[in-house]
């Protein structure tokens, strides 16, 4: 178990907290503040327990140079509104300077300040120890709350913990509880659904999960690479040449490990990669040469629903089809609805899968939607994330 903010007596202490406030901006205005709202419970806990809180984050890719378009100033304003109290923003092109240090040292209990985009310094992504040291001087305890960057060893996500003790905030605690427990201590049967575009990207995840799951379900573009490796013709469907040999290995491994490995039995194929392209359902052994598979078919949906109805834990990574196009979103939507209605613990990992669930308005029906696309994938691969490893154990 990792220490959380509940394990610290905050009275008179200051927190340096790494948040993920990498919010989308348009003409200087925030277009989606989900990430700001997500951090409120942790910030409010710190305020209520008498901490002084210094928050840091990255925003966009300023490539190590100060860039006013990627300033965190709008975030400080929005955060002030939500907290109902002023969040002091101390701008600095070098992120930490004498003024920033002074402001941090003058904070009173329950006060909050935000420093400038840590990626204004090129030392951030290099995990430079001097910069990490500068950040650590702003407080007594490091609070890790940015799951989306926890797979990167940067000064503000990892390096800082060489100087001061590290604990997690509530967002990280939740990720570890649901994503971590699902993978390491699942209630069985444990089913994983893997979809999306490329086999190659997800091979390490599938390989790791084959050791843990009872049922592995494949959908999306990656299915066609499996079909090809089984000798089927796949027409103009997505083929991951590099992943071809690996797909064959996975099929063998699944058999050896006795995992129930399910591939689509029918697919929806279209003439073109376009929503209005004519399309029909085909059995997977009769995909026409001149068409491409863009979704799973109705028999496959029924097969997958039956398998999922037996599961007690379900992890889903990667959509079942090109869900961005309405005509090819049917399979992804059916699976999302199946999870929404399921009594199993349902965990969504992966940026596009999370986007699909949100698009269908089902986000409240899932047990947990991971906030970190790349980070959740690495987690499912069984890798230790550097930004998590540095959090102290209880
Ligand atoms: P995640 O972000 O959830 O990990 P990926 O990034 O791996 O998912 O894959 C998502 C993409 O896969 C989507 O943009 C979707 O359109 C695409 N995709 C799904 N099925 C197909 C298909 N049959 N052909 C081409 N692309 C597909
Ligand atoms: Mg993606």
Would you give an account of this structure?
With about 400 residues, the chain is α/β, with parallel strands linked by helices. The protein contains 13 helices and 17 strands. Strands 5-6-4-1-7-8 form a six-stranded parallel sheet, sandwiched between helices. The protein has a six-stranded parallel sheet with strand order 11-10-9-15-16-17, sandwiched between helices. The protein starts with 13 loop residues before the first strand and ends in a 5-residue tail after the last helix. The site of magnesium ion (MG) has 4 residues, from α11.
Straight-line distance between termini: 6 Å
Tally of DSSP helical segments? 13
Mean pLDDT: 95
Order of H and E elements:
EEEHEHEHEHEEHEHEHHEEEEHEHEHEHH
Task: List the ligand species.
Answer: adenosine-5'-diphosphate, magnesium ion
Which range best describes the helical content: under 10%, 10-25%, 25-40%, 40-55%, 55-70% or over 70%? Answer: 25-40%
Low-confidence stretches: none
Strand order of the largest sheet: 5-6-4-1-7-8
Beta-strand percentage range: 15-25%
User: Quick one: biggest sheet?
Assistant: 6 strands, parallel
SS-derived structural category: alpha/beta
Radius of gyration: 23 Å
Annotation, overall tally of beta strands: 17
The 3D shape can be described as elongated
